[in-house]
Amino acid sequence: MRERFLEIALANPVVATIVDRAPKLGLPEWYLTAGGLFQTVWNHIDGRDLGAGIKDYDLFYFDAGDLSYDAEDRVIRSAAELFADVDADVEVRNEARVHLWYEQHFGIPGVPFTSCRDAIDHFASTTCCFGITKAAGGTVDVYAPHGYDDLFDMIVRPNPVLAPREVYEAKAARWRREWPALTVESWPETLT
């Protein structure tokens, strides 16, 4: 299923461009992740344009050496130049500094992540937990900690590792409006 996932994801020209160019940013660790990937697959399954309904493309990197906003902003500006001709919003974030603003944004304390993969592990839904990166030699690597079954079966399942229930439910509601064939699993009542 990994090969099928990659074939579909990279058929989206925005995904292919980001994965191809991101190494030029010289980041110590990076992944294209989240909606730009799993929503591309949903669009393929639904027979839609591969970019339909995708709000943005999340490019994560991890650099614990400088947690200042200024350092992150320099990378954001470099990425804006690199992807200026891409007809999509490429959102770049240093996952090493998410815990500094998470509580203000989501209302609960964030934990410091240890890597991009650790950040991906904490997404609101297990269906979101995908990442693609390109090694220096050009090899494309996929991170899929929960596998591919739910993705290809269009099942949205909560991942209560970090995200609060409200975040999961809001995201799931938006996704269901855009992709009505989704099966959305309820938040476990034992975690309320």
In short:
This protein is α/β, with parallel strands linked by helices.
Structure notes:
The protein is of the alpha/beta class and 192 residues long. The protein contains eight helices and seven strands. The protein has helices at residues 2-11, 13-21, 35-46, 69-82, 102-106, 116-121, 149-153, 165-178, and strands at 30-33, 57-61, 90-94, 131-134, 140-143, 155-156, 183-184. The strands form two sheets. Strands 3-2-1-4-5 form a five-stranded mixed sheet. It is globular.
Query: In one word, what is the shape?
Result: globular
Largest sheet: 5 strands, mixed
Q: Which sequence of SSEs, written as H and E, runs from N to C?
A: HHEHEHEHHEEHEHE
In percent, how helical is the residue content? 25-40%
Mean pLDDT across all residues, rounded?
92
Through-space gap between termini: 34 Å
Q: pLDDT below 50 for ≥5 consecutive residues: which ranges? A: none
The portion of residues forming beta strands comes to 5-15%
**SS-based structural class?**
alpha/beta
Strand order of the largest sheet: 3-2-1-4-5
Write the SSE topology:
Layout (H helix, E strand, L loop, with lengths): L1 H10 L1 H9 L8 E4 L1 H12 L10 E5 L7 H14 L7 E5 L7 H5 L9 H6 L9 E4 L5 E4 L5 H5 L1 E2 L8 H14 L4 E2 L8
Parallel strand pairs: 2-3, 6-7
Antiparallel strand pairs: 1-2, 1-4, 4-5
